Amino acid sequence: MSRHLPADHSKGDERTIGGYAAVHARPAAFDGRDGCSYSVELMADRTGDARHPWGAFLLFVQWKRFGEQGVHGHLESEFLAWGDDREAALAALGVMDVDEVQRRLDALILARAEAERAAATWDDDEALA
Predict the structure, then answer these.
(1) How far apart are CA 15 and CA 129, in angstroms?
(2) pLDDT beneath 70: ranges in the chain
(3) What is the pTM of this model?
């Protein structure tokens, strides 16, 4: 059951993705250029690079448009921030402007659509051969 919590602006700057999550006590939600709803989570993983041992990226969860509520898919950005540990990488990504996060989502949606078109064209060419 969800509940509405009032924003606590003492916890950060809601214009940044990390600040938004802190102020509103939930992940930010976005409308994608494909008409779908997405929420975003800041994630970090080891990079394998001794100079930048941890990298942080955006994980966008795409929600179902029809039928039962649930997850339809997801998109992931490349590493966008780095740190010596997980917390440092997440903090570095957390200062990204919310508008930039929206632009990153739209670019990922566009790239996915282009990849799907290319795959469909490839399948059509294979069928004609």
Answers:
(1) 53
(2) 1-3, 66-67, 122-129
(3) 0.84
